[in-house]
Amino acid sequence: MGSHPIGVHVGPGLTDDGELDRGGPLARAAELGADGVQVFLADPQGWKAPKPRPDAADLLSSDVAVHVHAPYVLNVATTNNRIRIPSRKLLGAHATAAAGIGARGLVVHGGHVLATDDPAVGVDNWRKTFARQYEDGGFPVPVLVENTAGGGNAMARDLDAVGRLWDAVGGFGAGFVLDTCHAWAAGWDLTTVVDDVRAVTGRIDLLHLNNSRDPAGSGRDRHAPLAAGEIPAELLLHVARAADCPVVLETPGDTASHAEEIALLREALA
C-alpha cells in the first residue's frame, strides 16, 4: 500500500466563462495535499459536450492522477431511445475529452431500465455500447462502471446484477468503480466487499471512499465525511487497504477537512 494516488473530487475548476477557477484542479490538488483529482468536464446534470480546457496541456503533463466523471444524466442501459442514443454519443465525447487531459479513466453510473422492462435488455444495451465503440477502435480511456445506491431495475445496484453486466461487458475491458456509500446503501457487506466484487468483476480500478448519512440498506445516496457517518471509519479504511487501488474522496466538507481526510488516508495506507 501507499503507492496509489489519493484524490478528491474538485469539480470542473472552471468559471462560467471557461476560465480557470482558483487555479483549476491542479491548484486544488496542491492545496489539499492530494496526488489525484476527479473532475466533471461539463454540467453533470446536462447534455452538453465538453469544451476545450485552458489547462488541458498542464493536466496532460502533470503527475497528478486525473479521473473524469461522466454526467449523471447518462443512461446507456435504458430502453428510451431519446435518452439511450444521446447517452452513447455523450459517453464517447467525454471519453475523447478525458483522453485529451490524460485521464486514467472515465467514471459512469451503471444506469437502469424502466420498471416494466426486463433488466436483461439494459445489460444488452450496455454490451452494444461497448461493441459499437470497439468497431471504431474502442474508447480512448478506460470506461469505469460505478455501482449505484438504489433504483429499481438498476444495472449495478446488486452484486448479482453487476455479475450479469460483467458477463456482457467485461470482455471489452470495462473497469469497475467501487463506491462505499453506494455499496452500504445497497446493503452490501463492507467487511467482505472487495473480495465479493473481485469475485464478480475480477477487478476494482478506483475506490470512491465515502461515508453515508443513512443506515445500511437505505437505498439513499447521501455522502458523509469519512469520520462522521453511519459507516465506522475503521471499516472504510479496511476497504481502502483491501482494495489497494487509487482512491477518490467525494465527501462533503471544506478545504481543511478534505486535507485532513487525505492525510488520514495516506497515514493509514502507508
| CATH C-level name | Alpha Beta
Query: Which sheet architecture does the biggest sheet show?
Result: 8 strands, parallel, barrel
Termini separation: 6 Å
Radius of gyration computed on alpha carbons: 18 Å
N-to-C SSE series? EHEHEHEHEHEHHEEEHEH
Q: Please identify the oligomeric state.
A: single chain
Total helical elements: 9
What percentage of the residues does DSSP assign to strands (E)? 5-15%
The parts where pLDDT drops under 50 for at least 5 residues are none
CATH superfamily: Divalent-metal-dependent TIM barrel enzymes
Throw out a few tags for this protein.
single chain; alpha/beta; TIM Barrel; 10 strands; 39% helix
Quick recap of the structure?
With 270 residues, this protein is an alpha/beta fold.
